[in-house]
Amino acid sequence: MVAVDAAPSPDRPKPEQGPEVSSPFKAGTLAIVGRSNVGKSTLINQWMHAKVSIVTPKPQTTRENIMAVLTGDGFQVVLLDTPGYLGDPAHLLGKQMTLLARGALLEADLVLLMVEPCQPGEIERRLIELIKADKRPALLAINKIDTVPQKSLLLPVIEAYSQLHPFREIVPISALKGEGVELLLRLVIAHLPEGAPAFPLGSRVYRSQRAMVADIIREEIYMLYRQEVPYAVAVAIDEFQPSSPQHGGKVYIRALIFVEREGQKGILIGKGGGALKEVGTRARQQLEFLLGRPIFLELWVKVKPGWRKDLQFLRWLQETNS
Q: What backbone torsions phi and psi does residue 246 show, to the nearest 5 degrees?
């Protein structure tokens, strides 16, 4: 166990509004799909001007359909950030992630397929077939163009995707650098149906605080340990007190970190608990910014062999963090 205490941090800034759009009002749900680590979470965080979903260099970090609601002058977009499409998942957790991505397509008024600036692969072809089967209007975003030395190299990629499907728009972007993301949002809004907003006006993230806290802790584990503890990590928020008398009125959070092997537990804790304390310190700094209040965070590491294949555990984990 590691306890992390801290001084207060400044209030979290409010999300900015999106670009202005004239009436009539446009409203609908946008499902963002693509292979793992293509930049879906980064794009949503850019649009929301806030942290909605965790972003790490590791693929498959999003494990649920994360919904955010972006409202501006004359529009409301419900954004679904889906888990990276796996194709043929190897375990029960992967199968659930694939089903979530598939379900998001069925919910959406509009689909945004995100791809990397290279020729279509098997996963992209499968996703395009699903889009065709559901007969959903779709846009294509070619992400990571900041990694392309010459923009002319994008032309064969655009041509290849144009041959596979009649996308409403094809937009090259860099979600990381912010290049093209506002143009893409304007085009998304233009292709949404007219209608009344589904949620109260204003930009909001419809996720529980417990889910956000668990994701941020997991993100810091991924960032700190890289290859040592790959995907065998789950985080459950065991206790969440908005104001704890025992901790000076601070937010008290007790989180359980599950791994599959004893060796992974030792790596997470580190010598004298130093590695886990570093995770807690980094996570606490993010959480104080998110919640706008000082936090007392406790982390415990537990071994749960084969948890990714345990349906009962996966259901418990979802309920605990909801």
A: -70, -15
Question: What distance in Å separates the CA atoms of residue 59 and residue 40, rounded to the nearest whole number?
Answer: 11
CA dihedral 309, 313, 318, 322 (to 10 degrees): -170
Kindly state the helix (H) or strand (E) to which residue 49 belongs, with its residue range: none
- Residue 13 has a pLDDT of 36
Amino acid at 58: K
Compute the distance between CA of residue 315 and CA of residue 25 in angstroms, rounded to an integer. Answer: 38
What are the residues whose beta carbons fall under 8 Å from the beta carbon of 52, sequence distance 6 or more? 41, 44, 45, 66, 68, 79, 81, 205, 207
Domain 2-9+207-320: CATH superfamily, name plus number: K homology (KH) domain (3.30.300.20)
The pairing of beta strand 75-81 with beta strand 66-72: antiparallel
The partner residues of 299 in beta bridges, in order of sequence, read 2, 255
The pLDDT confidence band at residue 256, using thresholds 50, 70 and 90, is very high
Which has more pLDDT, 60 or 279?
279
Q: How does pLDDT run across 198-253, given as a tens digit for each residue?
A: 777 765 665 677 887 887 888 788 777 766 565 678 888 999 999 999 999 999 99
Picking from 35-39, 199-203, 260-264, 276-280, which range would have the lowest pLDDT averaged per residue? 199-203
- Statement: 26-202 belongs to CATH 3.40.50.300: yes
